[in-house]
Amino acid sequence: MDRRRLPVGIQTFREIRDEGCYYVDKTPYARRLADDAGKHYFLSRPRRFGKSLFVDTLKELYEGAEGLFRGLAVHDAWDWSRRHPVVRLSFGAGNFKRPDELRASALRQLDAAERRAAPGPLGRLLDAVRGRLPEPSGYDSVPGRFAALLETLHRRTGRRVVVLVDEYDKPILDALDEPERAKANRDDLRGLYGTLKDCDAHVELSFITGVSRFSKVSLFSGLNNLVDLTLDPDYSAICGYTDADLDRVFAPELPGLDRDEIRAWYDGYGWLGEEKVYNPFGLLKLFRSRRFEAHWFETGTPRFLVDTLIRRGVAAPDLDDVHASEALLSEFDVDAIAPEALLFQTGYLTIRGEERRGGRTVYRLAYPNREVRQGLSESLLDRLAPDPRRERHAARLYDVLAAGDAAGVEAPLRALLAGIPHDWHRRNEIARYEGYWASVFYAHFAALGLDVAAEDATRRGRLDLAVRLGTHVYLFEFKMAEPSASVRAASARGSSPARTGPALAQLKERGYADKYRAPGCAIHLIGVEIGAESRDIVTFETELA
């Protein structure tokens, strides 16, 4: 197979087809939507996952651009004689913190749609014959203009309108750190989307997509027949690439790249379907650069997300194993944003399993892949332990871990803690708890791209942290130091023997090493105690298991 152009960042279906780019055929899902019993559809997926491209594919399909679909699954199953007018709205551009930006954006888009639908001579003749309907009351409002456009298009063409809304939630997400503006934008959007219910007779199909899943009550009140495809197993791969897609479409790009590494870095997203999917943006950037990096993550992590995790006291290690109900994942509103829902809907956590508990479904969430774990850890570390010299400490830490030098781990960890501004400790009560320090160390190791497991369950309890690198496994236990710890630490640095501290003692007494024993593997036990007042390591003990 010949190599083709990589469609990095291309969201226009026509450009992909005309330019001969690689294309993973998503038209079976478009066909399924048309055949389904529903009429109004909603889909939530993380940013840069192909939502806009699918929306544009629907646009070309319903407008009857048959030539673009030759060779694709939908071509022979579609009635190309039936063409529908399409109204597409997108709120991907604009700064919606400004008070009038949402209204201005909506009116600009409606103006453009009206110009595209403006009648030529034949249209004016038809209007004269049929009799132009009077402008409805409220025409100067956004919902009024929208309603008038849908009615006019239906009347003029004799076909009901297909309504496509992309980035439907960005006006709210942009302003989440300004709650009053976010609420105002939400209320304005409620009026716009409520038009779909009032104009149902003029609508053939509506498809609304974005990142978040705002509740129907807060944003889609009245649109009771809105079908949410987000966790529908039949639509789980509507965005993203499967393993089969890599073999079938991207085979020319695979030579020279380790397939297991590709999976570890970019695969792992799941929405209850049988197959996991790859992050398409990260994968395309890999094929272009031939380098395994956090390509998707580097396009921007909302500061609001990281600040929310810090403010809610969410510990970084806990994100490896989160449990959430279906109701929690389905709710997202300005007044109550659960961290679990925020992380899931933005793509930083994904579904790894589900189970029934009594009368409800509970999902197990975890990081989808190495890219997200590493990238989010770096962002959290920037807030938990800000230090411009951290990269130097990280390089040193990696070297001593690779060399099996457990005692050498102490110096870079001390340097990491020393770089945290004292004022940060003074202003943050969380620094007094073991969870904070476990988060700092976990994020530090995870940001290095190491194999890290937090709160790892064993038969005797839960280990704070396990780090693997090559043939070495490092098992950590963290404790907040008791007042006597400073005496013990001084003794440990002297010549007289010191009694084992509680952190190392717990590692030994509970036999945590048993789970990790394997031929040729060296297991290092590391007990760390942090001074509640000094905010420094007062005891650092190591032992080979």
Describe the structure.
With 545 residues, the protein is of the alpha/beta class. It has three domains: 25-235, Rossmann fold (3-Layer(aba) Sandwich), CATH 3.40.50; 301-366, Phenylalanyl-tRNA Synthetase, Chain B, domain 1, CATH 3.30.56; 385-544, no CATH class. It is 40% helix and 16% strand. It has a five-stranded parallel β-sheet with strand order 2-3-4-1-5. Strands 9-10-11-12-13 form a five-stranded mixed β-sheet, sandwiched between helices. The longest helix is centred in the middle third of the chain and has 20 residues, at 179-198. It is elongated, with a radius of gyration of 28 Å.
Task: Kindly summarize this structure in a few lines.
With 545 residues, the chain is an alpha/beta fold.
State the main characteristics.
545 residues, alpha/beta, Rossmann fold, Phenylalanyl-tRNA Synthetase, Chain B, domain 1, 3 domains, five-stranded parallel beta sheet, five-stranded mixed beta sheet, 22 helices, 13 strands, 40% helix, 16% strand
What topology does this entry show?
Elements: H1 13-18, H2 27-35, E1 40-44, H3 51-62, E2 86-90, H4 101-117, H5 121-130, H6 142-157, E3 161-166, H7 170-173, H8 179-198, E4 203-210, H9 216-219, E5 226-228, H10 243-249, H11 259-266, H12 280-289, H13 303-311, E6 322-325, H14 326-330, H15 339-345, E7 350-357, E8 360-366, H16 370-384, H17 390-402, H18 410-418, H19 422-427, H20 434-447, E9 451-458, E10 461-469, E11 472-480, H21 485-493, H22 502-509, E12 522-530, E13 537-544
Parallel strand pairs: 1-4, 1-5, 2-3, 3-4, 11-12
Antiparallel strand pairs: 6-8, 7-8, 9-10, 10-11, 12-13
Helix pairs in contact: 4-6, 6-8, 16-20, 17-18
